[in-house]
Write a structure and sequence with these properties.
The complex is a heterodimer.
Chain A: E1 11-15, E2 18-23, H1 28-44, E3 50-52, H2 53-62, H3 70-83, E4 89-96, E5 101-107, E6 115-121, E7 124-130, H4 139-142, E8 144-145, H5 154-163, E9 170-179, E10 182-190, E11 195-201, E12 206-211
Antiparallel strand pairs in A: 1-2, 4-5, 4-8, 4-9, 5-6, 6-7, 9-10, 10-11, 11-12
Chain B: H1 6-37, H2 46-49, E1 56-67, E2 70-80, E3 86-90, H3 92-133
Antiparallel strand pairs in B: 1-2, 2-3
Helix pairs in contact in B: 1-3
Classes of the chains: A alpha+beta, B alpha+beta.
Amino acid sequence: LAPGVTGPPRVRIELGSRTVRWWAPGAGRWAGAVAVGCGAVALGAGCIGTTERDDFNAIIRERGGGLTSDLPLDAVAAVADELDVDDFEIRSLSVSPLDTTVVLDVRDPAVPAHLDRFVVRRGSVDDIEPIRLSADDDLDAQTFPVSGLALDETEAMVDAALADFDEGGYVSSLRADRQGDETAIVLALESPRATATATFTAGGELVAVTRT
Amino acid sequence: VTPSPPRARRSWLGGVVLVGVLGFVAFMTTILVTITIWPGEATLTAPLFCDDDMPDAFVVVDRYRIEPGETSYDFSLYCMGPRGQTREIGLVRPSIVLTVAHGVVIALLAVAVMIPLRRARRRSPTVDAAATAEP
């Protein structure tokens, strides 16, 4: 608004020091309202019909976390395809359903003394990196065939784990590795008020749900 | 080889230009509507991209603060199932489908406007002739 001007408010558009145009004299209040309205629409536009990432993740959690058998099975198939084998040995398998990422520490079928980390995103191998082994590592004892994991029973494992956990809980991750002499599948459970782990055998039978 | 008659060549060229103009207008409409105003329009294409086990479609927006005062927005179409399982479709393929759909809608609107105009233009000389024929 121009300083020192009496009467109805006016809108002045300036470029540098030069006044380009006086606009809508006598109708400034309407012009102001229209400008504010257009600004609000412009700010609001671009978001119509969209879902914020945090809200989207909250919906996934409400539905149980998004862990299904497709995610690990597609990852195993992608790694088998990459290695050109039907089955292979792993030291561990981790699934993070929220970002649809599966990480497998895979024993190289061609060079069994080598261990490689395969990162699979959205069903395709995204990254392969060698893993440094220490003198204590015994791959014969630490690895196991991935075909021995009941990954096709993932949905049943999720249901069994959530049934023994808080209402509103969800599965945040899955991990399979050797625990002692046995291979175990462990689901990490979270709720607004607690966290827990659900341990299963390699065949998918529930062993225990333990609050952490 | 028989050369094409000039009239046929002109109508062929006119058709190519018309399709090009229609494609450009549809493309610009898609940029204006789908990316600038209503990104959620991409959910309308979900039946083409989402499997039966993931029927719920969302256009998810990610905001990135590049610098103070500068924000970048990424839109992507996702399909979601009853267990929360998701599949990312992205925005490129839905945008291509929407561009085609916008093109069809614009073409239909243009035809809907042009037909009454042509009819009115055809009628007007008859009316004038009838008016001049009266004694």
